[in-house]
């Protein structure tokens, strides 16, 4: 069962009014229950091939809407107490994963502080589920600050770069 089938099952449970759906195959077991608020809760249990003992996994989150823009004006964020940050644009992570400043450890960084960037230029890579996703700038400007450490985990919507668009 792939993620789209699981998402369809979650949507079915949330729309149908069914309180619980359980599906079991030889490889996994999925149990979706609705709570009092009507939001479905999903629990998946993986069944290892060698000993058939169920192993619980973390509940899967409900399907999320696709990431909007990967940038937002810093002035719309909570104030950091520095008036100079108001003129900068923050480029944020469009996904959860591992942040890399270069394509490999021997390569130069895609961007450094002081570099000019243009819309469409690759500025970093985020690895998610063994896939390396090139993140492109959506604005033009100059890199003022790099807010994430190389090879560190990043969250969705986490600020990565401060850019001076002027």
Number of domains: 2
SSE succession = HEEEEEEEEEEEEE
Report the structural category. mainly beta
Rg, Å, rounded: 21 Å
Strand order of the largest sheet: 5-6-13-11-8
The CATH superfamily of the largest domain turns out to be: RNA polymerase II/Efflux pump adaptor protein, barrel-sandwich hybrid domain
Number of strands: 13
CATH topology of the largest domain: OB fold (Dihydrolipoamide Acetyltransferase, E2P)
Number of helices: 1
Largest beta-sheet details: 5 strands, antiparallel
Shape: elongated
Q: Report how far apart the termini are.
A: 49 Å
Helical percent range? under 10%
Report the CATH architecture of the largest domain.
Beta Barrel
CATH class of the largest domain: Mainly Beta
Low-confidence stretches: 49-58, 64-81
Descriptive overview:
By secondary structure, the protein is mainly beta. The chain folds into two domains: 3-56, no CATH class; 71-164, OB fold (Dihydrolipoamide Acetyltransferase, E2P) (Beta Barrel), CATH 2.40.50. It has one helix and 13 strands. The strands form three sheets. The protein has a five-stranded antiparallel β-sheet with strand order 5-6-13-11-8, with no helix packed on it. It starts with a helix and ends with a strand. Residues 49-58 and 64-81 have low confidence and may be disordered.
């Amino acid at each position: 069962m792939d993620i789209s089938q699981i998402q369809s099952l979650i949507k079915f449970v949330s729309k149908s009014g069914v309180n619980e759906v359980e599906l079991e195959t030889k490889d996994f077991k999925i149990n979706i229950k609705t709570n009092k608020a009507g939001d479905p809760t999903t629990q998946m249990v993986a069944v290892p091939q060698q000993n058939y003992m169920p192993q619980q996994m973390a509940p899967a989150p409900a399907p999320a809407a696709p990431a909007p823009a990967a940038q937002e004006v810093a002035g719309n964020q909570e104030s950091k107490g520095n008036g100079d940050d108001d003129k900068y644009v923050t480029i944020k992570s469009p996904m959860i994963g591992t942040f890399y400043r270069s394509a490999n450890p021997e390569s130069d960084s895609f961007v450094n502080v002081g570099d000019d960037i243009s819309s469409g230029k690759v500025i970093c890579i985020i690895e998610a589920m063994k896939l390396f996703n090139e993140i492109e700038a959506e604005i033009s400007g100059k890199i003022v600050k790099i807010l994430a450490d190389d090879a560190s985990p990043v969250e969705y919507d986490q600020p990565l770069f401060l850019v001076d668009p002027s």
